[in-house]
Each structure stands twice: as structure tokens, then as C-alpha cells.
Amino acid sequence: MVEGGLLKVLYQHFLSGMAIKLNHRGVVFGRERSDALNYFLLTIKKSTVLQEIMTTAQSLSRLHWTYLHQLQKTSKKSIILLVHATFQRQLLQPIDEFFLFLVFLSVSLKERDLAHRFNIHQSTVSRIIATWTSFLATALGSQCIWLTREEVQAYLPEEFKDFSDTQMILDCTELRCQTPSSPLLQSEMYSSYKSHCTMKTLVGIAPHGPVTFISNLYAGSVSDKELFKQSGIAEKLTEDMAVMVDKGFLITDCCKCKVYCPPFLSKQKQMPAYQVKETQAIARLRVHVERVIRRIKQNKLFDSIITMSHVYNINQLFAVACMLSNYQNTALVKKWVK
């Protein structure tokens, strides 16, 4: 085993921007890396939370090995064979399993491809992905991403001075998925906007960039208003807060807070000048959430058609990707408004 794990070796090569080929245990990587994987490799050593997650993973791995060692001392042949088989599957260090999970998330390699590159069985790849999905969803989910009004105000960008009570910017996004065999499910999941079967989710960000709310994924046919109701976000918003949304969010009757939404033309032939300026101002600021969603979808798993085999844990996978985006180095708040 290379000292420090495969991640350490790959990390150095990613930093230098070199195309690499590792023959160690048959692992081969070239330039199919994504920006999402690059930024996370650059961030992992700088985040206290991520370091704690890796420390916990190492501890759990040692506990697992200790338990197996105790089982191996028994005289039952069946248990010994089970232990031997489990040891054969434990070829990767936790840091390398973590890297495998990131490659799956960021590059969207198939499990068979990952099994070949890491020289392990395909069922082991499935187990690693399922384990790390649950582990990261639990570990990152234990960190409260919702910000209080005072915390949002403390980091409010200057560009929001005309909308100073904005608590979050909301937008929906859709993930294309494999068409189910059931006609009923097809009709529920079909999105007229994407002309494909999709799963729809609501993402909320604070004005200065971090993701502060992630809803579950729903069938693609659900409306933005209904998704807002079912997500539970309305319960978190108070009268002294405001949300910024697109025209499709007709939610003024669903929440207590103020809603900043571009005005409709209605029966007017032309908008008044003040409404035009308001529309432009909201549009320039609302694009902020679209940039965050675009960053999340740099993980190619969500930019391709999601197979039914991953539907069972897609909520956790998407939540993990959203929470990992909060650890990206590059600040979203730029002078793009000007």
C-alpha cells in the first residue's frame, strides 16, 4: 500500500495538473477528473469538519478490524471463512474508499468501471458507495446548515442593501432519471419542462452563498408551489424575513414572510419604469442560486440520467453533494452584480 493511501498520490498529481496512470493494484486515472473533484481535493485538508469525518471513518475502520480479529480466534470453521472473505474485501483504506465515492459522485463512473480501476469486486464498490453515502449524510447532516436571521445579516453582501431582509434565495432544480416501467409512475414523474422523467427538489441559499436548505426529491410533475408547501421551509420563515424567488413561485399565500418576486406584466402593455428596475435588480441577485445549483451539478452523477438502482438513496446523495459544496474554496459573492 502506498503510504498515505491512493488519495495522497492522486492529490499531488491533481495539483500539478498532470495526466497520471497508476499501476498499483490496477488503479488507472487520466484527465477525466471534474472541477467538483478538484475543488474538494484542494479543500479537504483545510476543513476541520472534513478532517473530523475522516478521523471518525478511520476509528470505525479500526473497530471493524478489531471485531474481525476477535472473531478469527473462534474455532468455528464457518466464522473463520466469513472473516477471511471479509478481510479480502477490506482492501482499501478509508481514505481510498472516500476517494472512490468522490469519483463516483463527481465523474459518475459506473460501478463496473470503478471495480476494474480499484481492482476490487463490483459488489464491494456497491457496498462502499452505500456505506459512504449513509455515513456522509449522517456526519454532514449533523452540522446545522440553517442560519438564523442574525447570522445572515452579519454576512449580508453589499449588493443586497435594497433587499436587506432577505433570508434566502429559493429555486427548484430537476434531476433526470430513468423512465419507470409503470405507466402511473411515468405520468407522475414526467416533467413537461424537461420533456423527461425527473425528480424535483427545492434548494435554498443564504445571500452570501452557502446552501442553507435542501428538500427531499419529489416526482417531476409537482409544481413549485406544492413543492414549497411539502418541503417544510415555510415553518422556518418568520414575518421579519424575506425570500427571493422566480416568477413561477406563487407562494405569497403559503408563508408568513415577505416574497421578492419579479412582477408580472398582467394586463399592462408595458411595465412602469420602477417595475422594470425592480425586475432587473431581483434577476441579477436571484441568479446567485442558479450558480450554486450549477456548482452542485458539476457532480456528473446529477447531470446524467440517474438509474433506478440509485433512486433508493438519491435523497442522501444529493444532500451530500449540496453540503459538500459549502466547503468549496471559491466565494460566490463577486462583483457580477455590477
From TrEMBL:
Q: Which residues form a coiled coil?
A: none
Is this entry keyworded Lyase? no
UniProt cross-references to InterPro entries, sorted A to Z: HARBI1_dom, Transposase_HTH_dom
**Cross-referenced Pfam families, in alphabetical order?**
DDE_Tnp_4, HTH_Tnp_4
Q: Which GO terms describe its molecular function?
A: metal ion binding
Q: Which cofactor does it need?
A: a divalent metal cation
Q: Which residues form the Transposase Helix-turn-helix domain?
A: 92-140
Q: Where is the DDE Tnp4 domain?
A: 170-326
Q: Could you tell me the keywords of this UniProt record?
A: Metal-binding
Q: Which PANTHER family match?
A: SI:CH211-262I1.5-RELATED (PTHR23080:SF133), THAP DOMAIN PROTEIN (PTHR23080)
Name of this protein:
DDE Tnp4 domain-containing protein
Give the source species.
Oreochromis aureus (Israeli tilapia)
